[in-house]
Amino acid sequence: MTKVPSFDPRQVPVVGVDGHLPKVDGWRLHPDALAARFASPPLWTPEMVAEPRFTERAPVHASVLIALVVRDRLTVLLTQRTQHLSSHSGQIAFPGGKADPEDRDAVATALREAQEEIGLEKRQVQVLGNLPVYTTGSAYWVTPVVALVQDGFSLNRNPFEVEDVFEIPLDFLMDPANHRRHAVQWEGKTREWLSIPYQDGEAERFVWGATAGMLRNLYRFLVA
Q: Which of 85, 116, 134, 176 could form an SS bridge with 18, CB 3.0 to 4.6 Å?
């Protein structure tokens, strides 16, 4: 049985902002430096591994693609999910989804899902490596696959799954001064998460939950 928490995350109080933490040095956010870090990773510990479960179903393997677009300033490719989807509807997410039996590994799942959701072709993607599995409250075991995407690619989003595709600068997301901590009481327990709101013209891109958690782990990996 699944009981999804019902609250507006934008209305949940902010209990802290992590401006006391160092931001990732700019030179670490260049494509060559990122490739070198994944090729020879440091000793580090992911900060966010699992959310409190709110379902009794068996875990489901999934992958997402953290696509870093190579521009003058690296950006992260993100999607806004449509409102009618059964899980994580309306939320900001990385392209990705459940593993299929024919997928060779987590990378194959992430690349296939990115192509199906937003039309990003595999030949346009240079995979750098994976981050540790992140377990969502809805019982998805998610492997984040980090990759570079050269400028000049074309997209064709699936309108059933994806409302919008947009980019946020990587250096903004890798600055903990932009990371806000929230807490809410739900079924007698405190549920906590991060948000990273970004003002994109007139639109606020409210990155939170699993997406923000995986970005925080990327931050920990790069700052280690």
A: 176
Predicted model pTM: 0.93
Q: Under CATH, which architecture does the 22-223 domain have? A: Alpha-Beta Complex (3.90)
Q: Measured between alpha carbons, how far is residue 8 from residues 12, 150, 188, 218 in Å?
A: 7, 36, 18, 26
Q: Which residues contact 132 (CB under 8 A, 6 or more apart)?
A: 46, 49, 217
- The angle subtended at Cα 118 by Cα 99 and Cα 122, nearest 5°, is 65
Reported as half-sphere exposure (CB side, CA atoms, 13 A), residue 89 has a value of: 10
The backbone torsions φ and ψ at residue 95, rounded to the nearest 5 degrees and listed phi first, read -60, 135
Tens-digit pLDDT profile for residues 146-190: 999 999 999 999 999 899 999 999 999 999 999 999 988 776 677
The rounded distance, in Å, linking the Cα atoms of 100 and 144 is: 16
Residue whose tokens read 């003058």: 72
Lookup result for tokens 């699944």 = 2
Q: What single-letter DSSP state applies at residue 137?
A: T
* Region for 92 from its dihedrals, namely left if φ exceeds 0, alpha if ψ lies in -120 to 50, beta otherwise: beta
Give the whole-angstrom CA distance, residue 93 versus residue 107. Answer: 17
